[in-house]
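step=encode ok
step=design start
structure_in=
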């Protein structure tokens, strides 16, 4: 794979070794390193070694390459600490979706208890939708393929 970099991107700088990181896994295609915020202990970022801003910029080959590494890295994180009971896998795309670094990255966030320092909730909006609303959304998405 030929890698392209963005000289202004902090993750590209980490990939090239210009900025230090706590790398937990690296191969020709991806680099996984500890998120400096450590939402929970072991919070890891998995980044492609080629600069793509978000999921919309992936082609099928890059997606297969990057996402195929997730289980391997997730298993290593879980095996690293017997207190880990679960793991959130999170990918934010766009500022409105809380993406703060515009180099695609996947968060692997270990979970220790129901009350650790990470929270993620989804509001149930199902009462706002009827059969027609669901069908309209479904057909709008299906028409894009």
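sequence_out=
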């Amino acid at each position: 794979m030929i890698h392209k970099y963005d000289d202004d991107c902090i993750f590209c700088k980490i990939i090239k070794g210009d900025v230090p990181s706590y790398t937990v896994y690296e191969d020709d295609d991806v680099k996984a390193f500890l998120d400096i915020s450590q939402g929970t202990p072991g919070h890891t970022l998995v980044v492609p070694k080629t600069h793509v801003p978000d999921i919309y910029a992936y082609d099928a080959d890059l997606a297969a390459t990057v996402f195929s590494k997730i289980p391997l890295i997730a298993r290593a994180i879980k095996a690293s600490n017997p207190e880990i009971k679960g793991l959130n896998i999170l990918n934010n795309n766009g500022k409105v979706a809380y993406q703060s670094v515009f180099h695609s990255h996947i968060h692997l966030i270990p979970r220790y208890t129901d009350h650790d320092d990470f929270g993620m909730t989804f509001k149930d909006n199902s009462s706002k939708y009827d059969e027609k609303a669901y069908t309209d959304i479904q057909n709008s998405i299906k028409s894009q393929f």
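step=design ok
step=annotate ok -> The domain at 10-142 is CATH 3.30.428.10 (HIT family, subunit A).
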